[in-house]
Amino acid sequence: MMTRRSFIGTAGIAAAAPAFGGMAVQQQSWKSPRGTVSMEKDVVFGKGGGMDLRCDIYRPPAGTEKRMATIHFHGGGFRAGNKESLSERVQPLASRGYVAITAQYRLSGQAKWPSQIEDAKALIRWTRANAGRLGIQADRIAVVGYSAGGHLALFTAGTADRPEFEGSGGNPGVSTKVAACVAYYPVTGVRPRADGSADALLPPGSNEAAHRAASPTSYITSAFPPTVIFHGLEDVTIPVESSQRLFQQLRDVKVPSELHTFDGVPHVFDSHPEFADPSGALADLFMDRLVLNPRKYPPFGG
Description:
Radius of gyration: 19 Å
Shape: globular
């Protein structure tokens, strides 16, 4: 059975090296069955209010490059969490040829909505603006989100280039359109609390209309990018029914989509290596056949 140690391989830390505008960043590397994944830590990509926003960049093993980026948003209920929590979970995609970028965004205790989506879009713009230095094609950017981060992934996917959500975090005028969305047990809606008060993500006094406007499912149209959803059937934090409804909503407007459910596993099931790597393989197949090498399949018996 694969262990946590065998999944991530051996990590090494190299001396800080110049990258992106000459700023020194810490570099690390991981060995995987598919080669060595290297990482550049704490690269500044924009501003969130008055604070620098940083990301970690995981580069694929030499010879596997697909010239596509995946931007990853962590979970934590918008109250907690950080980009470092994704260091192991991005390995399945990074080791398969994707440039995987883990994002910092302001938490609800630091700033209220729409600050979080503005930070997410700032990273999409930065990634597109730096496509050449990242070794990707500018139109090959996917968003990947986990729980609350799934909300951000879905929201960015449905609101490309909408001025009210773009913010001023950097690289103005660069498109925030994405090529695909990957959502792990995502938060699909924002609702008032039982006592009628606003969700902690939103400013105090926000009404029901404001909650709907902050919900990703309010922006699903036929223009939504191809989307794949992963959910554990024993998830009691975010019940699988929310992803089932999301999947049906995507199908209703004919968005290419898949829903993969896993029996007997809870929230954050992909922290277990035996599910993380197969999920990465499914996401890879999905993006390969719908973005990288689009193809259709004839009926059986053709």
